[in-house]
Each structure stands twice: as C-alpha cells, then as structure tokens.
Design brief:
Layout lengths: L1 H8 L4 H20 L12 H19 L4 H19 L9 H27 L1
Helix pairs in contact: 2-3, 3-4, 3-5, 4-5
C-alpha cells in the first residue's frame, strides 16, 4: 500500500496528478463537444457517460488539489454547465439540465471513491 499512497498523495508526484486531471478535462471537453464522439467509449446511455466522466474528474481533481474541495466542486459544476451551453450550439448535440444533474451525481460518486481510498490508505 505504500506505493499506492505515494502515487495518490506523495508531494513529488503531484505534478503527475495535475497532468492527469488536465488531460481528463481536455478529453471530456473533446468528447462532449465533438459532433460525433467515438462509439467505442460510449456506455450506451448519455447520463452514465456524464456520471462516469465527472466521477473521474472529481476523483482525479481531489488527488491533484486535496486542499480545496469546495472550489474544485464549484469549478467542475461550472465546467459542466459551460459544456451544456456549448452543446446547444453544436449540430446534433443538445444541452440538458438532466446532464448537469448527472454531472453532479458523478461528482458525488467521485468524492465517495476519493474518501474511501483516503480512508483505506490511512488505515494501512
């Protein structure tokens, strides 16, 4: 568990965790704003796509910036809202309030995963 603890919380690897978070932000934006995202990474249900994407974003964001959880949550919610607004301008895409709700639900799931990981690593 020491290696996992170092990967997740070690100060020397923080730039790597920030890079992973930034790459996820870019990937989610590309998938959300592409007129025809690849079918191979689609769960088959749009809300599940949102839930999983924002769970991954919140989880990786918390690993990158553990000290500012409220700011991270608000920023990701605003990011999701901006994506929905942008989707209204893209042919074949729609912005929906339900998608923003799925984003927020995914953030809750990502937070639970982060808290579980932190607890497991503290106990080891």
């Amino acid at each position: 568990m020491t290696l996992l603890k170092t990967l997740c919380f070690g100060p020397r690897l923080r730039p790597l965790r920030i890079s992973v978070f930034a790459l996820l932000l870019i990937a989610v934006a590309w998938l959300a704003l592409s007129p025809a995202p690849p079918v191979s990474i689609n769960t088959g249900w749009d809300k599940a796509n949102h839930l999983l994407a924002f769970a991954a974003l919140l989880f990786s964001g918390r690993l990158a910036w553990a000290q500012r959880p409220a700011l991270l949550g608000l920023a990701l919610l605003a990011y999701g809202g901006l994506i929905e607004l942008a989707q209204m301008q893209i042919p074949g895409r729609d912005g929906e309030w339900a998608d923003l709700l799925a984003d927020a639900s995914g953030m809750g799931l990502g937070l639970l995963a982060f808290m579980l990981l932190r607890r497991l690593l503290q106990e080891s």
